[in-house]
Amino acid sequence: MNDRSATPIASSSIARRYWLMLITVTGVACLMFFTNLGTAQLWDRDEPRNAGCAAEMLDRADWVVPIFNDQLRSQKPVLLYWLMMSAYQAFGVNEFSARFWSALLSVGTVAITASIGHRLFDSRIGLLSGIVLSSNIMFAVAARAATPDALLIFLSTLTIACYIWGSPKQPRHHFVQSFGALDWRWLVAMGVTMGLAILAKGPVGYLMPMSIMGMHLLITRRDRSPRSFGVLSVIHPLHFTKTALAMHPFLLLAIALLVALPWYYWVGLRTEGDFLKEFFLKEHLGRSTTAFENHSGGIGYYPLSILIGFFPWSLFWLPVAIILYRHLRTDSNENNAVALMLCWIGVQVGLFSIAQTKLPSYVTPCYPALSILTAVGLEAWVRKRIVISDAWIKAALVIGAIVGMLIAAIIASVSHRYVAEIYWLPILGAAVAGGCIVGLWRLMNHDRPAAIHSFVIGAVCFCWFLFGLGTGGLSTAQNNRLILDRVAQMPPAVAVASYECLESSWPFYSQRPIYETFGSAAERSVKRAKNWKPKPVTSPESFAKQHQRCVFITTDELSDELLARLPEGFSVLQRADYFLKNKELVLIGK
Q1: pTM, two decimal places
Q2: CA spacing 20 to 30 A to 501: which of 146, 190, 240, 429?
Q3: Last-in-domain residue among 364, 382, 400
């Protein structure tokens, strides 16, 4: 009996399993993402820039122009800042508020992923895919960071979920999609989510989901293309054009622009076009054609970054790949759904592999699809639906046990040197090793479900210890806050400058703009005609002349040089360790 033609009693049972699955994965996700969310300090560089931008916008009562450190921040659109500002108003300006929406939306992404797994396959795969997504490194990083990554992942996943949820009610496991079959309300929902994604990260919020769904339709609509071209029919111009037009791209773009365009127009007007030029030409076109900040890599960059970022579940990559390959060679009704997940991953990784600037976070939006395929592969093995030797899973568990023990040894060595007070950190690797060893033992006793359950427990414990406890513990070792908190307590009239160094977290924690000074900089005024323009870089002598009351932040190796350049009366006010660096931060003032 299938889910769609079930009797009322069976339908009620399916509904109970569905809601129990959602409650379970939501609970796991909340545990992973909200435990000690505000304990760790903001990590340089992106977190304090985003959190600081929202704080400055709220302080200036300006909901249009993104400003950080008293100058235009053109790297990201405004939606993340709006969400942070709402959290600041509810919980105050702090780390928890800055990360609140990332964690909450990531819980939503986990729930949506589990729902997709249930819709395309069944509740067991929905449950496992939600847990897999909650307990890998890179997605947990996005969920607990004050960055727009979690926001983009949520909106992209929701867009593709609308594409899936709006499909005709086919028998279970028989997913066939066509934009022509979508009710207009699903089209509006997709346009709105893509418009919000444009407000969160830019044009990629529209282009990426459309490319993923378009690739899926190109493959699944091949029967309507010229047969004489065989496999090449996927890229046949006529087939491509018909498929593209069938997706209502202009309608969806119009809806998305209705959502996003008003803010882009207004911020362009307020900044005389400066934001639009910086955002579209530099941050998008520039990053596509040039490797920014040495963030480059070859064709293997993203497979390697996903191998690390999807840990510990990436241990099963090879056996899952074999299972999926054999799965696609069958006549299963699930193959259409598997193809959609593969398109989701392939388009995301393929397009960003072409771009010159590469960062691991750029492909995190495909992690929901990775989680679903991992669950599909492991469930097919557990239920013996696809024949594969247990030796593949045993090898993955053995490798996991070895890697876990290596992680424990490396962490023990590093923590003893830098953060000896956090003596329990090696438990991170022990959690992975323990889950793999117990799983291997259960598999040796021919209990496949118990082997996966043991690994699940190890993976969840690993990520919970790492992010729920480990990051907060590491943050206690950062005593540079001693200097920044002292600056924050100074009267607003005290101007602050850095000398030959500046971290993004300093403006946020000192609660004021910080100017940059250099020994080689020219003498110049620090005043600007327009407040969104970059602050001028000047010499420390010039800055001290223009500000009767001022302080400087520098390092111990530069403090004597700075004191020699400043007028009499300046001296060292405070010192603090520079976290993970063999130097000190120094506060200099009168």
Answers
A1: 0.92
A2: 146
A3: 382
Beta-bridged to residue 584, according to DSSP, are 577
- Are 12 and 40 members of one domain? yes
Contact in structure between 427 and 464 (CB atoms under 8 Å): no
What are the DSSP calls for 4-72, one per residue? TT--HHHHHHHHHHHHHHHHHHHHHHHHHHHTTTTTSPPPTTHHHHHHHHHHHHHHTT-SSS-EETTEE
Angle (deg, nearest 10), helices 149-165 and 335-354: 150
CA distance 323 to 375: 11
Of 177-186, 225-234, 263-272, 486-495, the range with the lowest mean pLDDT is 225-234
**CA-wise closest residue to 315 among 446, 143, 462:** 462
The answer to whether 315 touches 399, Cβ cutoff 8 Å, is yes
- Can you tell me the distance from the alpha carbon of 57 to that of 66, in angstroms, rounded to the nearest whole number? 7
Q: Is residue 425 part of a domain?
A: yes
422 and 370 both lie in a single domain:
no
Report which residue type is found at 287: R
* CB distance 147 to 188 below 8 Å: no
Among 363, 382, 401, which residue terminates a domain? Answer: 382
* Cis omega (within 30 of 0) for bond into 536: no
**Which of 35, 39, 32, 29 has the alpha carbon at shortest distance from 95?**
39
pLDDT tens track for 49-72: 999 999 999 999 999 999 999 999
Question: What percent of the chain has pLDDT above 90?
Answer: 64
Q: Are residues 70 and 184 in the same domain?
A: yes
End-to-end Cα distance, the chain: 81
User: Exposed e or buried b for every residue in 548-582, given b needs 16+ CB within 10 A?
Assistant: eebbbbbbeebbeebbeebeeebeeebebebbeee
The pLDDT of residue 582: 76
Do 178 and 36 lie in a common domain? yes
453 & 499 share domain: no
Which helix (H) or strand (E) segment holds residue 119: the answer is: helix 95-120
- How far is Cα 315 from Cα 440, in angstroms, rounded to an integer? 13
Give the number of domains in the chain.
Answer: 3
Closest CA to 135 of 47, 25, 240, 60: 25
Residues 283 and 418 reside in one and the same domain: no
Q: Residue 415: in which H helix or E strand, if any?
A: helix 390-418
CA distances from 244 to 178, 211, 240, 402 (A): 12, 10, 6, 48
Name which of 302, 295, 24 is nearest 138 in CA terms: 302
Please check whether residues 421 and 441 belong to one and the same domain.
Answer: yes
On whether both 414 and 367 belong to a single domain, the answer is no
Return the structure tokens found at 523.
Answer: 């003498």
Domain assignment of residue 27, given as a range: 8-382
84 vs 361 pLDDT, higher one? 84
Please check whether residue 1 lies inside any domain of the structure: no
C-beta separation of 66 from 80 below 8 A: no
CB 83 within 8 A of CB 91: no
2: in domain: no
